[in-house]
Amino acid sequence: MDFADGTALPRFAPVVLAGGSGTRFWPRSRRAHAKQVLALDGENTMIQQTLQRLLPVAKAKDVWVVTNKLLAEVIAGQLPQIAREKILAEPVARNTAPACALAAFLLEPAAPETVIGVFPSDHVVGNPARFVEVLRAGIALAASGERIVVLGVPPTRAETGYGYIEVGAAAAPSGDVPVRRVKRFTEKPERARAEEFFASGNYAWNSGIFLWSARTLANAVREHCPAMVPLLERIAAAHASSPAQFARVFAEVYPQCENISIDYAVLEPRSAKGEAGSEIYCLPADFAWNDLGSWAALYQHRTDCTDRQTTPANVCDGASTQSVVIDAAGNYVYALGKIVALVGVNDLVVVETPDALLITTRERSQDVGKVVEELRARGRYDLI
């Protein structure tokens, strides 16, 4: 893999995070068939789209996937390009820090200069060519020293559902891509604060896409999460020994890792060193990014891809093209193979599967995960 000018691209190892259960996409998303393995936007599943975006920059043999036991075989079937041993099934969920750090400790002994990229498996990108340009720039920057690179999405509204990155001084561009130093990270803010961030023009949404060399990430974990280090070293040593040894040690030791996000574990404490000391940089994720976190987000993405209309569009997925709409607007409906009739209703989400029916509003679609919590409390594991 080379840059456009012919210079060699550093070895690049993407780590695709695919362990979530996607509860806010219930009833289509279930534990054993979660959001990342569904085709929510087009014919290919979310994780297939994620891999397709990465292959212009990465070799399939260098891609890792971190998921769970329920999804590992489904993902292996959907991603035949990825070697089965590169699809790691966590014995228990431990958030993003242990998953990211494990990749660093696996790669550092033999290839410390390898640039690791962390990619959630449930994003959509409207401009894949620009994604590749920004990603190449980020890889080059991460390979140039003990640097951490985050892709920050230019915000379009005061959104309370995303984390924020406060950017500081401009740094030397990476190719044609502008670079800003990072001041701090802020988790999902309240409405008033989100509006302040948006108005200031100095904040980006945290995309959850990070780049760093294996050495840089491993050293950051040693500095900020020392209790995790001996655990990861044991797992990495077992991985180098044999598949059977790795399976045994992984199942025994990984659950002892702290359940913490990479943002809290590494990025926030590192950013406390200040712009100059943290060596954290932000590149603009200006490639029409969307985090499909709810039915409302999917509706917004689908309508953003069509011509703007005075009356908000209705989106009918899985439904017959003969669906009937009378005095209705702004609705999202999924009903496989059925004619859907919308009469005098606005801004609803209606999703039908063979065993469940969801009816809510787009405004309340972030609360769909509460349905899963209630079903779990009732012991209805067959529905989750």
Please tell me about this protein's structure.
This protein is of the alpha/beta class and 384 residues long. The chain has helices at residues 46-54, 72-78, 96-107, 128-143, 191-200, 214-224, 229-241, 243-253, 262-271, 274-278, 295-304, 369-377, and strands at 12-17, 64-68, 87-90, 115-120, 123-125, 148-153, 164-174, 177-186, 203-213, 280-284, 289-291, 315-317, 324-326, 332-335, 341-343, 348-353, 356-361. The radius of gyration is 21 Å and the shape is globular. The two termini are 42 Å apart. The mean pLDDT is 93.
Question: Which terms would index this structure?
Answer:
alpha/beta, globular, 2 domains, 17 strands, Spore Coat Polysaccharide Biosynthesis Protein SpsA, Chain A, 12 helices, 384 residues
C-alpha geometry: globular
Top CATH class of the largest domain: Alpha Beta
**Number of helical segments with 4 or more residues:** 12
User: What is the residue-mean pLDDT, rounded to a whole number?
Assistant: 93
**What strand line-up does the widest sheet have?**
6-9-7-8-10
Q: Give the fraction of residues assigned to helices.
A: 25-40%
The domain tally reads 2
Overall CATH architecture of the largest domain: Alpha-Beta Complex
β-strand amount: 15-25%
Largest sheet: 5 strands, mixed, barrel
What's a quick, concise take on this entry?
With 384 residues, the protein is α/β, with parallel strands linked by helices. The chain has helices spanning 46-54, 72-78, 96-107, 128-143, 191-200, 214-224, 229-241, 243-253, 262-271, 274-278, 295-304, 369-377; strands at 12-17, 64-68, 87-90, 115-120, 123-125, 148-153, 164-174, 177-186, 203-213, 280-284, 289-291, 315-317, 324-326, 332-335, 341-343, 348-353, 356-361.
